[in-house]
Amino acid sequence: MKTILVDAWNTFFTEDGIYKEMYDILENYSNTKIIVTNANDEQLIQLGIDKSPYKVFTLKHNPDKVDPVYFNNLFKEFILNNTNVIYFEHNLDAVKSAKSLWIKAFHYDKDKKDLVALKQFLDENL
User: Fold this and answer.
1) Beta bridge partner(s), residue 55
2) Per-residue pLDDT of the chain (126 residues; tens, 9 = 90+)
3) How far is Cα 43 from Cα 58, in angstroms, rounded to an integer?
4) Cα separations in angstroms, 37 against 10, 12, 41, 44, 74
5) Nearest one of 32, 35, 23 to 1, comparing CA atoms
6) What one-character-per-residue DSSP string does 79-121 give?
7) Which residues of 63-73 are buried (b: 16+ CB within 10 A; e: fewer)?
8) What CATH number is associated with residue 39?
9) Which residues contact 101 (CB under 8 A, 6 or more apart)?
10) Per the confidence metrics, is the pTM higher than 0.85?
11) Domain count, the chain
12) Backbone phi, then psi, for 80, in 5-degree steps?
């Protein structure tokens, strides 16, 4: 069963807290979810990510998700690989980084908030 990698800030977490509609969609899948972030310890608290209902992975900006090394470290920590994860993210450069490792990734437009397209991506790739 594939693990869903979920971007934290400006995707799952907003200034209003957890994006409830997205949470409700994710809860329809029994897959493991991991929140992926660049946040350091202070930012985890400031942005509310420390209250995540899912596991959280961060390298505290060393490196950020725009560097494929980030995903290689995530794979090592959770014993995962590019074939058993899917990922969605608002930062296009982070999506490109993931795709450079052959990770199935979806660019989630934080302004459009197209949950129909997100659900379609999840349904087609899980």
Assistant:
1) 34
2) 999 999 999 999 999 999 999 999 999 999 999 999 999 999 999 999 999 999 999 999 999 999 999 999 999 999 999 999 999 999 999 999 999 999 999 999 999 999 999 999 999 999
3) 11
4) 11, 10, 11, 9, 11
5) 32
6) T--TTSEEEEES-HHHHHHHHTTT-EEEE--TTT--HHHHHHH
7) ebbebbebbee
8) 3.40.50.1000
9) 68, 71, 72, 82
10) yes
11) 1
12) -125, 175
Tell me how far apart the alpha carbons of residues 74 and 30 are, in angstroms, rounded to a whole number: 20
Q: With contact defined as beta carbons under 8 Å apart, do 70 and 63 qualify? A: yes
Domain with 111, as residue range(s), is: 3-125
CB burial of 82-112 (b: ≥16 within 10 Å; e: otherwise) equals: beebbbbbbbeebbebbeebebbbbbbeeee
